[in-house]
Write a structure and sequence with these properties.
The protein is of the alpha/beta class. The chain folds into 2 domains: 116 residues, Rossmann fold; 97 residues, Winged helix-like DNA-binding domain superfamily/Winged helix DNA-binding domain (Arc Repressor Mutant, subunit A), CATH 1.10.10. It contains 8 helices and 14 strands. Strand 1, helix 1 and strand 2 form a beta-alpha-beta unit. Helix 1 packs across helix 5 and helix 6 crosses helix 8. The termini are far apart.
Length: 227
């Protein structure tokens, strides 16, 4: 049974670092599970209920980025990546693959706990399968899959977040500033990034249904979803 604050899965091969993080999380009321590699993570997250994953980038026998990608194929669980690789490209790659936040080593264990709390506050659990109003659009938050008229639309995690936000209230006009909030905590996300995600999502939807104008531009304001 998990605690009221939830259970955190820590995937970190440096045992000394993991033990400190575990200690501080437990002091703050979290339950924890520590693994030194990601060999059984996909099966683990389907059999246990975790509130969040702390994922190291440099793991033995696996790359944290690839593991993040694999987790995102089966779950929308929040992920905070931990790494000593501070180059901007690493941050961008991690967030594009669906990570919710990024923390660089060496870090304060108190900062880790604060980041965990911040991400959990932003993360609102969704119904596993949500119909976007009275429309043929289905949004599966557990597997990051969007289906339109029963047909799967292959979207990146960022494109999924955008379509899921628009699909939550079909017909509502979202400004770019409001859509930026969907990516709260992600670095280097700007107005033009939103436009790029919209463009790419539209292209993929058009490939499946050329006759549909699902995501519509509202001049001078932003976007809305209409089916």
């Amino acid at each position: 049974m998990t605690t009221a604050k939830g259970k955190i899965l820590i995937i970190e091969d440096e045992v000394a670092i993991a033990e400190i993080v575990v200690d501080y999380l437990k002091r703050d009321g979290f339950e924890t599970d520590h693994r030194v590699d990601g060999s059984d993570v996909q099966s683990l997250i389907t059999t246990d209920r975790f509130a969040l994953i702390l994922l190291d980038v440099m793991l033995p026998g696996a790359d944290g980025f690839e593991l993040c990608r694999a987790i995102r194929q089966v779950s929308a669980i929040p992920i905070i990546m931990m790494t000593a690789r501070v180059e901007e490209i690493d941050r961008l790659i991690g967030l594009e693959l669906g990570a919710d936040d990024y923390i660089c080593k060496p870090f304060s264990p108190r900062e880790v706990v604060a980041r965990v709390k911040a991400v959990l506050r932003r993360h609102v659990p969704q119904d596993p399968l949500k119909q976007a109003g009275n429309t043929p659009l289905e949004i599966d938050h557990d597997s990051f899959i969007v289906r339109l008229h029963g047909k799967k639309i292959d979207l990146t995690p960022s494109e999924f977040k955008l379509v899921a936000a628009l699909g939550a209230k079909p017909g509502r006009v979202w400004s770019r500033a409001q859509l930026l909030d969907v990516f709260s905590g992600e670095k280097d996300v700007f107005d033009r990034t939103i436009d790029s995600h919209v463009k790419n999502a539209r292209k993929k939807i058009a490939q499946a249904f050329p006759e549909l104008d699902l995501i519509q531009s509202v001049y001078g304001i932003g976007y809305r979803l209409e089916v």
